[in-house]
């Protein structure tokens, strides 16, 4: 049973994801005028990889929130399974595209490494979610999906933090920093939620002692 806080959190997340998808979908027109101005030339020279990245990530980002809805999962198991495969495909394709684009990012080595690790983390956590569900380990699958989607939300947190960090440190350094702070705290929060939920599922100590 979801608490009011969880419902509000899910709805806020959905709103941010809808905005992200709308903003990102403009790239699919392949009109250079909509590209991130500092990287316009790079994007024009690597359009195919950029589209692979954005296309895959839009799919995964849009599907993700609904996969966490227990009522949807229970009522439409087959749809959950199909959507899960599409999510995985999107994360895989978008992650490989992201890894490629990471080598060309706007603030050089520091942002290249930050985005590369993010892309690898997305690939690993999404892959683990798949491996766990194939092994029938539903709880472990949920936990890996929580980590995977928290990383996916880096695309949202990046766009929230970037203007502040760039105003504070300048475009170059602010963007280099955001390539890290957009995802490391998300992963820490996901880990906290996973562990907190695991603790809540544990039987109370005195009951275990009696058993
Ligand atoms: C979570 C893993 C992700 C990684 C590793 C990643 C990586 C990257 C990299 C390296 C770039 C180029 C940045 C630069 O030019 O400096 C980029 C650009 C972009 N990515 Fe991602 N990304 C991820 C998630 C997403 C998601 C979920 C979306 C949207 C649904 C998305 C949409 C975009 C867009 C629209 C751009 C073009 C630049 C901009 O408008 O900011 N990315 N991404």
What are its keywords?
mainly alpha, globular, binds protoporphyrin IX containing FE, 11 helices, 211 residues, single chain
Compact description:
The chain is mostly helical and 211 residues long. It contains eleven helices and no strands.
User: Helix count, per DSSP?
Assistant: 11
Question: What is Rg?
Answer: 19 Å
Task: Tell me the strand percentage band.
Answer: under 5%
Average pLDDT, rounded to a whole number, is 95
Which cofactors or ions or other ligands sit in this model? protoporphyrin IX containing FE
Secondary-structure content class: mainly alpha
Q: Indicate the percent of residues in helices.
A: over 70%
**In sequence order, what are the helices and strands, one letter per element?**
HHHHHHHHHHH
What number of structural domains do the residues give? Answer: 1
Coarse shape? globular
Largest sheet: none
Q: Tell me the number of strands.
A: 0
Explain this structure:
It is a single chain. The chain has helices spanning 4-25, 40-45, 47-67, 70-75, 77-102, 109-134, 138-152, 154-169, 171-181, 184-201, 205-210. It has 211 residues and is an all-alpha fold. The protein has one domain (4-201). α5 (77-102) runs antiparallel to α6. The longest helix is centred in the middle third of the chain and has 26 residues, at 77-102. It is globular, with a radius of gyration of 19 Å. It starts with a helix and ends with a helix. The mean pLDDT is 95. Protoporphyrin IX containing FE (HEM) is lined by residues 20-21, 24, 27, 36, 39, 53-54, 57-58, 61, 98, 101-102, 105-106, 115, 118-119, 122, 151-152, 154-155.
């Amino acid at each position: 049973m979801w608490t009011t806080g969880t419902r509000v959190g899910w709805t806020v997340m959905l709103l941010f994801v809808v905005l992200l998808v709308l903003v990102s979908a403009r790239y699919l027109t392949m009109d250079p005028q909509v590209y991130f101005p500092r990287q316009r030339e790079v994007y024009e020279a690597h359009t195919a990889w950029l589209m692979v990245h954005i296309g895959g990530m839009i799919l995964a980002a849009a599907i993700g929130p609904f996969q966490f809805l227990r009522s949807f999962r229970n009522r439409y198991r087959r749809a959950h399974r199909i959507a899960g495969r599409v999510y995985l495909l999107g994360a895989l394709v978008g992650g490989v595209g992201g890894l490629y684009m990471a080598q060309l990012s706007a603030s050089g080595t520091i942002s290249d490494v930050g985005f590369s690790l993010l892309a690898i983390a997305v690939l690993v956590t999404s892959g683990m979610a798949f491996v766990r569900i194939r092994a029938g380990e539903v709880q472990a699958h949920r936990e890996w999906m929580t980590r995977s989607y928290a990383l996916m939300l880096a695309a949202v947190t990046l766009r929230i933090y970037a203007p502040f960090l760039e105003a504070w440190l300048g475009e170059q350094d602010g963007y280099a920093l955001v390539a890290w702070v957009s995802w490391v705290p998300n992963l820490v929060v996901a880990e906290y939620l996973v562990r907190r939920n695991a603790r809540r599922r544990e039987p109370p100590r005195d009951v275990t002692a009696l058993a």
